[in-house]
Amino acid sequence: MLMKKLLVPIDYSDCSVNALDYAANLAKNFNASVHVLHVFRLPSAGGTPIIWDMEVTLQKERENEMNATLRAFKEKYADVKFTSSVTLGLASHVIIESLEEGDYDLLVMGTTGATGLKEMFIGSTTASLIDKVNTPLFVVPESSKYENIESFILTSDLDRIIEESKLEIVKNLASSYNACIKVLSVKDKLDHFDYEEDVKSLEVLIELESDLADTDYTTEIIEKTDFADLEDAMFDYSNESNSVLVLIHRKRSFFKRIFGQSYSKKFAMHATNPILILQD
User: Residue 195: what pLDDT?
Assistant: First the structure.
């Protein structure tokens, strides 16, 4: 799968503009185009939207902001094709519609600090977005500045085979950056031998390594005894220099299990590298 069309929602905040800058660098590397989307809502008084001429006024104001933003980006990234749209509506709904109608290959979004990352995974609006979109989602922490990517850290619990299409996305990304793929598996440490589980994990690992045989990859399996071990593993790897953490999203509880514990604040506030979320 080649990354040819990127969708980047922005609200003109420093965080979203930083994500756009990251996306522009990705697009430059992929020779892809970037569509920048801004969604706005009408202010309300006592729960009732103020309409009058407000929609026309806000539309014009937001379009002016978009034009100013893109003017700077087009000067900085002359080789990247930018398009844009400014739309009235609910952000999550408009993003989903845009993805469905625009045939985009990657959705790039920014997130801020502890609250931002927590909302990204367990907040009602964005969690709903993650559950509903099939497009790969590239999450850029506010503190993350673009650098040449050297590794993609693919997480797997080895309980099922990763779809070939998902692996192809990671492999193509790694290839475009001449980067390595690091497979990270965090397994529960059992106090007894579980033959069936071990055999299943081994079969999945063999299949995974076979699929990655034509790439530069490494594998590391970490046994955890509790959530603290999981935190340490995810935290250490997510902050490895010039890396992207790759998560396979299966159900919302997976993200709750990782980020919904007390240590989520530590991870969110100190994570400096992007996260690529692929839908299972």
Answer: 46
